[in-house]
Amino acid sequence: MSWMLPALVLWPLLAATLGVLHQKHARHWGLVGALGTAVLGVAVMGLETSSWTLGGWALPLGIGWRLDQLAQWMLLIGAIVGLFVSVYAWLDHTLPRAFWWLWLGAWGAMNALFLSADVFNIYVTLELLGISAVALVAISNKAGATQAAMRYLLVSLLGSMLFLLGVALLYGEYASLDMVYLAQQMQSGPVMFLALAAMTVGLMAKTALFPLHAWLPLAHGRAHAAVSAILSALVIKASFYLLIRLWLEVFAPLDLSLAFWFWALLGSLAVLWGATQALVTPSLKQLVAWSTVAQVGYLAIGLALMIDAQAQFSWAWGLVGLILAHALAKSAMFLAVGNIQQRAGHDNLQQLGYVLRTERKTLFAFGLAGVSLAGLPISAGFLAKWWLLELSFDHQAWWLFGVLILGSLMTAGYVLRVLNLALTNQAQTQSLQAIPAGREWLVLILASLAIVSGLSAQSLWGG
């Protein structure tokens, strides 16, 4: 095993520990930890795919790790987004020191989750990631942050318990927790369908997939901008990554003939409901939060189409393209909102006209991210949405084709709702707070990646 793989887990944890021990320099240790983890996340793309057991114990007793192409891409997405969020947070002096300990702990847990090859180790890392994410919401000084964190905690714990129930059922049936072995031995039966149902509902709650999404807008509304970017771009993607593993690998041998309708209907409802709420909410932060609910629906639709095609796990890379496009666009959008909100001191849409005209780079970044979310050419979101449309057409799912088109139009609608405010002649009603210029450029670069990655995605789509 390459030293880089354990370093992906241990390095952020070491930096977090040093930050706790030397609290006056927590920001600097946090940035050092983030830079190192990001470099490792990018470098891992050059490693050969393989599997290992840790501690010298053979399976099923040993803890299995596996690096395949899916894990490599998830680690890379985490590295890119994590680096930008970390630099943004380093420039934001309003963040408490605890942010760095919790964020690096969450990053280490997330990397371990992507590398894990057995479902119990995944449960452990999923729980650590969830606790860290809840604490990141709770450290906000905004009114209602504790309430939002408590709701998130209850949902997260329920999801973890359901996932653990599925783990227990799998072990009781096959006396093994290795995902490759389970996929090879999997046979239809009521126990396995119960395990799949329990784990799926638990992960849906953590992914904030409709109708288990109620915790997400409240958590985003109370959290710091950097925390919202982490939650939307990375944390909920980790749980969706597990849904991909379960449905396209572990439980793939089961009869999943009705699964297409389950995922397609839930995804469609998520797209339409989330976009509708984004069109009417009076808060900019809530608008972007509801946008996340809608965009998660596209992930569910992509999973439905993959299951309907009976794709093997050596599969189509459209789902990874969706995850990449969403992670880049939503992290940029939340960080842009953080700039606007801190400059104005609020996020009331009707009173942001002057601020939006002033923050031109931030507004342009918001628009670029919106272009990708709406699936307009030439963005990464365009390639991902085109993949969905092509699959829908091939499967003659005309109603789903219509949902995808309508969802993109609604996305463009709520993005234009924000951009249009900059054209108003609203007078300045209060003084604006200063923010570091580096944060504006950082958000603009990140949003540009959501466009540029659509031009250089041959390695992904040729996977």
What can you tell me about this protein's structure?
The protein is mainly alpha-helical. The chain folds into two domains: 1-255, no CATH class; 258-463. It has helices spanning 4-21, 26-43, 69-91, 98-115, 119-138, 145-174, 179-185, 190-207, 215-222, 225-250, 259-280, 284-308, 318-344, 353-358, 360-374, 380-394, 398-421, 437-452, 458-461; strands at residues 50-54, 63-67. Strands 1-2 form a two-stranded antiparallel sheet. It is globular and about 65 Å long.
Q: How is the secondary structure organized here?
A:
Blueprint: H1 4-21, H2 26-43, E1 50-54, E2 63-67, H3 69-91, H4 98-115, H5 119-138, H6 145-174, H7 179-185, H8 190-207, H9 215-222, H10 225-250, H11 259-280, H12 284-308, H13 318-344, H14 353-358, H15 360-374, H16 380-394, H17 398-421, H18 437-452, H19 458-461
Antiparallel strand pairs: 1-2
Keywords:
single chain, 2 strands, two-stranded antiparallel ribbon, 19 helices, 463 residues, mainly alpha
Describe the structure concisely for a colleague.
The protein is mainly alpha-helical. The protein is built from 19 helices and two strands.
Helix content: over 70%
Question: Averaging pLDDT over every residue, what do you get?
Answer: 86
Looking at the chains present, what oligomeric state does this protein adopt?
Answer: single chain
Q: For the largest beta sheet, what order do the strands appear in spatially?
A: 1-2
Spans of at least 5 consecutive residues with low confidence: 459-463
Derived structural class: mainly alpha
Summed up, the helix count is 19
Major sheet characteristics: 2 strands, antiparallel
